[in-house]
Structures are given as C-alpha cells and as structure tokens.
Amino acid sequence: MPSETLTIESSLADLPKRKWLRAVEAVAEEDGYFQSLGKKHFSAFIERETTLLVSFETYQGMHALSDKAQPLGWDMVRNHDWSHLCIASDGDTWFRAEEVYAYFDRLIDDGFFDEFDQVLFYGAGPCAYAAAAYSVAAPGAAVVAVQPQATLDPRITEWDDRFTDMRIHDFTSRYGYAPDMLDAAARAFVLYDPKETLDAMHAALFTRPNVTKLRMPRMGDALQTDLLELDQLDPLLQAAADDTLDTTRFAALYRARRDYLPYLRNLAHALNSAGREEMLEALYANVTARMNAPRFARRLERIRARRAARLEEARAATG
Questions:
Q1: Phi, psi torsion values for 143, nearest 5 degrees
Q2: Contact assessment for residue 143 and residue 120, using Cβ atoms and an 8 Å cutoff
Q3: Is the dihedral of CA 77, 82, 88, 92 positive or negative?
Q4: DSSP, res 138
C-alpha cells in the first residue's frame, strides 16, 4: 500500500495487483465501502449525490482504458459528483458467480437503490451483459449496454463461437437472460455496430418496448474504446441518466465520428471494397480539407491521378 494518502485523484497505475486492490479499497472507504465478492469479484462504493452509476468493469479494462488505472465510473464522480458503485471482475466472467448474486440480493433487501433519485447501470461487452442482467435489482433504472451479449447459453446463442469456454457456466438461473432482466428498467440503450454480425445478432435479442438500439455502423468491435477516444462516453451517460437520450440526441453525439480517423479509415475501407471510387474520392477530399490526414491526401492524389490517366487513354483511343 502506498504510504501517501490516496484520493480519487490518485493514479493507481503501475501498482501490483494486490497493492492496487488495497488502493481501491482505501479510496472507496473514505466515503463508502469496499467488499470482496469471492476470488474474482469485488464491489467498491463511493457516495456523493443522488445520481448513482452502477458500472461493471474488469481489472484488465481499468488498466487498459484509464491512464490512472481507475474505474471508469470515477470520472463521473469527479466530473459530476455522482455516487458510484463499481462491480469489478478479474477477467471476463460475465459476473456469473454466487457471491455476486448474493450481493445484489442484499442490496435489494437493504433498499440500497431506493436511496437514489436516478440509477444508471453501465457496461461494455461481458460487462454490458451484467449491467442489463443485474439492472432488475433496481426497478426504474436506466441502462446503457455497449455491445452486450444476451446470454451465452448455447441453446439460444450457439451461433456465437467467440466465448465457447463460457458455455459450461450457468446462464439460465439467477439474473440469467439479460433481455428479460431489462423488463423492470425505465429505459435501456443498446449500442452496437450492425456490421459486426454477432454483436448485431445479440442486439436483436434485446428487442423490447423499453429498449432503444443505437447503431454505430463502421465503428468496429471496440465501441467503448471509441466512445472514450471520442470524448462521448461522459455525455452519453449524462443523457441516459437525465432522460434526454434518444436517437436524435445520440445522432448529435455521434457526429464526433466525422473527425475520428479510425472510423474514417473503416469507412474508406468499406467504400474501397465495394468499388465505390467516386464516393471514396469524395471522402478523401472531405477529410483532407478538414483535417491533417497525410494518408488520405496521398490516396486522394492517387485516385485523381488514375482518373486523369484513364481520361488521357480515352482521348488517345478516340483521337
């Protein structure tokens, strides 16, 4: 454990796992609590104002996505004085553990969620599955699920061959089928790239009257990373919590992709694969006019050179 006093501003990067856990515990217990939930899970609660973010995260994800190796939810504590309950796992477990079931049972029995005016559940990938599944513990909550799996029960999703090692785990009992667990939510939002076939198939299983699907075409299979790099995760969560998020609001947020080179490269690749040279040229011209993008500028020059060469050949052939 570091000797200095730890706060929510402290960097936890480069700490060995045991010291990192003790550091998270020390920060949480200043205004809340830390609780171990078996060998692979823990919860860390920080109490502030009456909006509560419940985020599901992994130890590995915190280190990959945060410069300070902190839970993503701590940004919302710092920026908006939200309360935050982090449910964390070591690795991708989909939070299928008796200790986690029992923990949420206790939260329900204690009326924990009733103490907050707004409750928002959030997660991405396996953590999005958990955010949807455990949201049933707080009826009336909002849910933001980025690329969620509906279940890994092979009787329902045998077509998903990405996580076959998890099929031995129970996805049918407590907090099991994530789409059904959303029935108690006031509103839920499922973000996915429709071009990612397996993600889109899972998203289809979340079709419910209280679920809004937010499509992010040509963005790929790491949408949480993209939202962070676009600086849009924070406003997305704010809008979900205060009930202003809808397809129109999301479209306004998602316009940030126009200046996001990974998205632009994906779009260019799709246009090139489809043989849409005129549209590809228009894209390269647009990006080059707005941004410092040498690769796009070079490709624009090549397209224009090819077109000029074709025109010259045509003139020669008719001359």
A1: -135, 130
A2: yes
A3: negative
A4: S
CA–CA separation, 275 and 184 (whole Å): 47
Tokens of 152: 């890994």
Cα–Cα dist 73/290, whole Å = 33
Bridge-based pairing of strands 142-146 and 118-124 is parallel
Residue with the two structure tokens 């300070």: 68
Cβ atoms 254, 192 nearer than 8 A: no
pLDDT tens digits, one per residue of 149-190:
999 999 999 999 999 999 999 999 999 999 999 999 999 999
Mean pLDDT of the chain: 95
> Which residues, other chains included, contact 163 with Cβ-Cβ below 8 Å and sequence gap of 6+?
92, 149, 152
Kindly report the pTM of this predicted structure.
Answer: 0.93
Orientation of helix 233-241 relative to helix 73-80, angle to 10°: 70
Phi, psi values for residue 165, rounded to 5°:
-70, -15
Name the packing angle between helices 261-273 and 277-290 (round to 10°).
Answer: 160
Task: Tell the burial category of 252 from Cβ atoms under 10 Å away from its Cβ (0-12, 13-18, 19+).
Answer: exposed
In the numeric block, which tokens belong to residue 144? 């933001």
d(CA 195, CA 300): 26
Q: Fill in the DSSP letter of residue 6.
A: P
Angle at 233 between CA 71 and CA 246, to 5 degrees: 135
Q: Which parts of the chain are beta strand (E)?
A: 32-36, 41-46, 51-58, 83-89, 118-124, 142-146, 187-192, 211-215
Q: Across-strand partners of 190?
A: 145, 213
Amino acid at 138: A
CA separation for the pair 106, 94 (Å, rounded): 20
Residue showing tokens 């050179």: 305
At 215, the amino acid letter reads R
Q: How far is CA 175 from CA 70, 95, 160, 255, in A?
A: 27, 10, 20, 35
User: CA 319 to CA 309: how far, in whole Å?
Assistant: 15
